[in-house]
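Example for tutorial group B:
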C-alpha cells in the first residue's frame, strides 16, 4: 500500500494527496504534517519507512468537502486519489495484491465546483498568462506581447484579452483570480518579479509546454470539437497561448471529465475603464483596505437577489464600459424598471426563487452533481417561463428585450422532461434513489411496488410468527451481514429449537449475548425478491439520471445564455431598486469631456451616516468640464482643514464616474459625465516594507504612474502629494505635479493639498481653479461644514484637530505657540515669486539650455571653490565674496 502511495505521490508532488482507504482519505509523510497543522486534526503514525515512523492523518470521505474548503482557503492544492477497481478483483490477483488507486481529480483554488466551497455571490476565476516574445529578444521587454485568459469553471465563463507589461498587474487584479497559471520561464523572469510578489501564492508556475502557441490551435480545436478556433474569432498568438494554457490546465486538473466551457470571448482593448491596482484598492470597490466586503462600494450598491446577478454586478463594477451607446442601453433598462415599479417587484419575486443554473450545470457535466442539481435546473427553467409571462405585455427597452429573447430560446422539451421525471422532494445523492417521479417509468413503478409490498409482507410475517410461537417480542430485522433474520430473546430459544419440527423450520444463524437469530426458507426467498427489486429500482433510477444528465449537457449553451439573461434582469432590477431607495439620478453619459455633478454624494459614507448617526450627508457640486473654447477639462485645487471632508469629496467623484459608466444611476441631483478612459487615484498613506519602500516612496511610485499614463480623457484624483518628506521638498513636488497635469496630461483632475502656497498657481494656469472645504470658527472651536466652495483656504486647522483627537492640553498650547511664530517668519511672498517662473516647461528649457562660453568672474570664483576642504569660517567668507561679485555683475 505504501509503495502505491509513494508512486502516486511522486506524480503529484505539488499537491496534498488524499489517498482513499475505505471510508477515509488518508495523508502520509509531509502531507500529513501539513494537513494536521492546517486542519487542526490529530497526527498519528502507521508503519515505518526507511526505519522512520510514517506520519499519518485522515478525514472521513463524507465530510471531505469541509476539510477541502479549509485547505483551499489556505492556498493548498489537493490530489484526490480514489479506488478505481472492485476489491474483489484485487483479491483474484493474490492475497498481497492492493486495490488499484489513481488520482481522479486535482482540487485547486481556481477549479473548485462544490457548492460548499464556493461563495454564491463571487466568481471563482482561474487565469492564465500567455506571452509571445517580440523581436527585441528580451525576456519581457521590448516588443513582447501578453494576453490573459480567465475561466470560471463553476459557471463555464471563458474570456480573453490582450495586456501589456506595464498594465499586467492592474489587469490581473481587475479580474481577481483565485489562481494564476503561468509558464515557468515567465514566473522566473526578473522583470516580472514585482507582479508575482504582489500576487503571492495565487501565482502557480506550470511547464511551458502548456502554453505553446504553435500547438495552441490544435488543442483548442480538439477540446471544442471544431476544425479550427478561427470560428470563435480572430486571436493573437499571445491570446491563443493563454487560451491553450487555460484549457490544458483544466484538462490536467479534471483528468477524464470535461466542463461545459463557453467559447472564449475576446474583450476588445479599451472597451472598459482602466483602473490601476493602487486606484482599485484606494477606492475600495469590492473590498476595503482591510480586506472586508462590508464598507466597500459593492456592498453599498448590491441589491441583487440571485448569485448570478451578484457576480455580474461585481464584474460590471470592476470593468465599467467606455462605449456611451452600451452604457445608455443599460441605463434605459434601469429607467424602465424604475418607472414600472410593480413589474420590477414581480420580476424580483420570481428571481428570488431562481437557483444558480450555471453552477448546477457545471457540477452535472463533471459528474459531481446530484438530483438536486437537476432540480435546480428545473426551477431555473420555470423561473425563466415566469419572467417571460410577467413581461409579455410590456414594451421593453433593447437590453431587456435581448435578455428575454435568450430566455425564449431555452429548450421547452428539457423543461417538460425534468418536470415529468423528477419528484418534488429530491435527495442529495443519486445513490440514495427516490428522485424519479412515480408514473415516469413503468418498470421502476413495478420494482418499487414489489419492494414496498415485500416490506408489508415482512411485517405480516413477523405478526404471524409472533402469534404462532407465542413470542410477543419476536422481531424480523435486517443488517448487511445476515440480511433478514428472526430475532428472539435468549429465554425463548427453547420455543425455536426445542422440537424436531421447530429445528427443521427455524434455521439457526447467530447467537448473541441476550438474543438468538434464525431464518426460514420463506424468509430467505422473500429477502431475495426484496433485494433484487430494490437493486433493480436503483439501477433504473440511475439510468434515468444519466439520460437526463446527457440531455442537460447537450443544451449547455442555451442554459448558460438563459442564466446570463436572468442575471442581467436581476442587475437591472437591483439598480432600479437602489436608485429609488437611495434617491439616485440617471446620469448623462456621452463622448464629450464634461464632468459636471450637482449635489454629488458618497454612496458608502451616506449609507453609513444614515445607519450610525442619522445625519444627512452634505452634498457637493463638482465641475471639471472644459470652459468656453477650452479643449481640455479643468483641474480643481482643493484646500481646507483636516477632517473637513476632502478625501470623501475626492473619492465620491471617482465613484460617481464608475457608477455612471457601469450603467447605474448615481448619487447626485444631476450628473453629466463625458467618457473617462482611465481613472487614477492617489489617496491615503501606506508603505511596502517587504519591497523596501517607505510610505513616501510608495506615494511617489504611484504618482509617477499617474503622470506617465494619464491622457486628456483620464480622471485623476490626488490627495496630499508630497506630505511624506520635508515641507519644501513636498511643496516642490506637488507644485511641479500640478503644472505637469495642466500642461502635459491635460486631464480632468482634483488635487487636494495642505500646501496653501499652491493656490497662487490659479493666477497663471488657465484651467486650474481654487476650491476649499468651508469651516466656521466658534468660541475657539472649529466647525466643519463639509461644504465645497470656490476660493482658497489659508489655514489647515491641524492644531484644532489634534485637540479633538485628545492630545494633552500642554502639547496643544505649545503647538499653537510654535505655529504662531512660524507664521510670523519670512515665508510670505514665496509663492508669488515662484509663479513668475511658470510654466514648468520654460524652466526645463532654461535648465537644458547650453551654458554660454566663458562664464565671467562669478563663474570662475565658484569653480575655484572646494567646499569639502574649507572650514566653516572660510566658507562664510567665500559666500560674502561671491555675493559681492554677483552684485557687481
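The residue assignment follows.
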Amino acid at each position: 500500500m505504501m509503495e502505491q502511495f509513494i508512486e502516486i505521490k511522486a506524480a503529484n508532488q505539488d499537491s496534498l494527496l488524499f489517498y482513499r482507504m475505505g471510508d477515509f482519505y488518508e495523508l502520509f509523510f509531509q502531507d500529513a504534517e501539513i494537513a494536521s497543522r492546517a486542519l487542526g486534526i490529530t497526527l498519528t503514525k502507521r508503519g515505518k519507512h526507511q526505519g522512520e515512523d510514517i506520519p499519518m492523518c485522515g478525514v472521513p470521505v463524507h465530510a471531505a468537502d469541509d476539510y477541502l474548503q479549509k485547505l483551499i482557503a489556505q492556498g493548498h492544492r489537493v490530489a484526490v486519489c480514489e479506488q478505481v477497481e472492485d476489491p474483489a478483483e484485487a483479491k483474484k490477483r493474490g492475497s498481497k495484491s492492493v486495490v488499484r488507486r489513481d488520482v481522479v481529480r486535482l482540487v485547486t483554488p481556481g477549479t473548485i465546483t462544490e457548492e460548499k466551497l464556493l461563495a454564491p455571490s463571487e466568481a471563482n476565476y482561474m487565469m492564465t498568462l500567455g506571452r509571445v516574445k517580440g523581436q527585441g529578444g528580451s525576456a519581457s521587454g521590448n516588443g513582447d506581447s501578453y494576453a490573459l485568459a480567465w475561466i470560471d469553471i463553476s459557471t463555464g465563463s471563458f474570456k480573453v484579452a490582450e495586456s501589456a507589461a506595464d498594465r499586467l498587474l492592474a489587469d490581473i487584479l481587475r479580474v481577481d483570480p483565485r489562481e494564476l497559471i503561468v509558464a515557468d520561464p515567465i514566473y522566473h523572469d526578473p522583470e516580472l518579479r514585482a507582479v508575482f510578489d504582489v500576487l503571492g501564492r495565487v501565482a502557480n508556475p506550470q511547464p511551458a509546454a502548456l502554453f505553446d502557441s504553435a500547438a495552441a490551435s490544435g488543442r483548442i480545436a480538439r477540446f471544442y470539437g471544431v476544425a479550427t478556433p478561427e470560428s470563435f474569432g480572430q486571436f493573437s498568438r499571445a491570446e491563443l497561448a493563454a487560451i491553450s494554457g487555460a484549457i490544458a490546465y483544466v484538462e490536467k486538473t479534471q483528468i477524464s471529465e470535461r466542463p461545459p466551457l463557453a467559447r472564449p470571448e475576446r474583450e476588445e482593448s479599451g472597451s472598459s475603464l482602466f483602473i490601476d491596482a493602487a486606484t482599485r484598492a484606494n477606492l475600495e470597490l469590492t473590498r476595503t483596505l482591510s480586506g472586508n466586503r462590508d464598507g466597500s462600494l459593492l456592498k453599498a450598491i448590491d441589491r441583487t437577489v440571485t448569485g448570478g446577478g451578484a457576480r455580474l454586478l461585481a464584474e460590471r463594477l470592476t470593468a465599467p464600459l467606455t462605449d456611451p451607446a452600451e452604457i445608455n442601453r443599460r441605463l434605459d433598462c434601469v429607467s424602465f424598471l424604475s418607472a414600472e415599479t410593480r413589474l420590477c417587484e414581480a420580476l424580483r419575486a420570481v428571481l428570488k426563487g431562481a437557483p444558480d443554473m450555471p453552477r448546477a450545470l457545471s457540477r452535472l457535466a463533471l459528474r459531481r452533481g446530484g438530483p438536486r442539481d437537476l432540480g435546480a435546473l428545473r426551477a431555473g427553467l420555470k423561473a425563466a417561463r415566469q419572467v417571460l409571462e410577467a413581461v409579455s405585455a410590456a414594451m421593453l427597452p433593447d437590453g431587456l428585450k435581448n435578455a428575454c429573447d435568450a430566455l425564449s430560446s431555452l429548450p421547452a422539451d428539457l423543461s417538460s422532461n425534468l418536470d415529468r421525471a423528477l419528484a418534488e422532494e429530491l435527495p442529495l445523492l443519486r445513490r440514495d434513489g427516490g428522485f424519479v417521479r412515480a408514473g415516469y417509468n413503468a418498470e421502476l413503478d413495478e420494482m418499487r411496488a414489489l419492494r414496498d409490498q415485500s416490506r408489508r409482507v415482512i411485517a405480516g410475517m413477523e405478526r404471524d410468527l409472533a402469534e404462532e410461537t407465542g413470542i410477543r417480542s419476536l422481531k424480523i430485522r435486517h443488517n448487511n451481514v445476515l440480511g433478514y433474520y428472526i430475532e428472539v430473546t435468549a429465554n425463548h430459544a427453547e420455543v425455536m429449537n426445542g422440537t424436531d419440527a421447530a429445528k427443521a423450520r427455524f434455521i439457526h444463524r447467530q447467537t448473541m449475548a441476550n438474543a438468538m437469530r434464525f431464518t426460514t426458507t420463506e424468509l430467505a426467498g422473500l429477502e431475495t425478491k426484496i433485494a433484487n427489486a430494490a437493486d433493480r429500482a436503483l439501477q433504473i433510477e440511475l439510468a434515468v439520471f444519466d439520460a437526463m444528465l446527457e440531455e442537460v449537457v447537450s443544451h449547455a449553451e442555451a442554459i448558460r445564455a438563459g442564466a446570463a439573461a436572468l442575471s442581467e434582469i436581476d442587475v437591472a432590477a437591483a439598480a432600479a431598486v437602489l436608485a429609488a431607495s437611495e434617491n439616485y439620478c440617471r446620469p448623462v453619459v456621452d463622448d464629450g469631456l464634461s464632468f459636471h455633478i450637482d449635489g454629488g454624494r458618497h454612496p458608502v459614507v451616506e449609507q453609513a451616516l444614515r445607519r450610525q448617526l442619522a445625519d444627512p450627508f452634505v452634498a457637493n457640486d463638482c465641475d471639471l468640464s472644459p470652459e468656453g473654447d477650452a479643449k481640455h477639462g479643468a483641474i480643481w485645487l482643493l484646500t481646507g482643514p483636516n477632517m473637513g471632508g476632502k478625501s470623501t469629496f475626492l473619492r465620491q467623484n471617482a465613484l460617481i464616474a464608475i457608477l455612471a459608466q457601469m450603467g447605474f444611476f448615481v448619487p447626485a441631483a444631476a450628473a453629466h459625465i463625458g467618457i473617462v478612459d482611465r481613472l487614477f487615484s492617489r489617496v491615503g498613506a501606506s508603505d511596502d516594507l517587504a519591497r523596501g519602500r517607505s510610505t513616501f516612496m510608495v506615494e511617489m511610485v504611484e504618482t509617477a504612474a499617474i503622470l506617465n499614463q494619464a491622457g486628456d480623457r483620464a480622471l485623476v484624483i490626488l490627495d496630499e502629494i508630497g506630505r511624506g518628506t520635508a515641507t519644501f521638498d513636498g511643496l516642490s513636488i506637488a507644485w511641479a505635479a500640478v503644472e505637469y497635469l495642466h500642461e502635459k496630461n491635460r486631464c480632468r483632475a482634483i488635487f487636494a493639498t495642505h500646501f496653501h502656497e499652491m493656490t497662487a498657481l490659479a493666477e497663471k494656469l488657465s484651467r486650474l481653479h481654487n476650491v476649499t472645504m468651508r469651516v466656521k470658527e466658534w468660541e475657539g472651536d472649529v466647525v466643519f461644514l463639509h461644504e465645497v466652495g470656490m476660493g482658497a483656504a489659508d489655514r489647515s486647522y491641524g492644531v484644532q484637530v489634534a485637540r479633538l483627537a485628545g492630545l494633552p492640553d500642554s502639547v496643544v498650547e505649545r503647538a499653537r505657540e510654535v505655529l504662531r511664530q512660524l507664521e510670523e517668519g519670512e515665508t510670505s511672498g514665496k509663492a508669488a515669486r515662484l509663479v513668475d517662473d511658470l510654466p514648468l516647461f520654460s524652466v526645463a528649457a532654461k535648465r537644458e539650455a547650453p551654458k554660454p562660453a566663458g562664464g565671467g568672474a562669478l563663474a570662475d570664483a565658484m569653480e575655484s571653490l572646494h567646499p569639502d576642504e574649507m572650514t566653516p569660517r572660510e566658507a562664510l567668507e567665500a559666500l560674502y565674496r561671491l555675493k559681492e561679485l554677483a552684485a557687481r555683475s
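Residues 854-888 form one domain. Compare this with the pattern of hydrophobic and polar residues in the output above.
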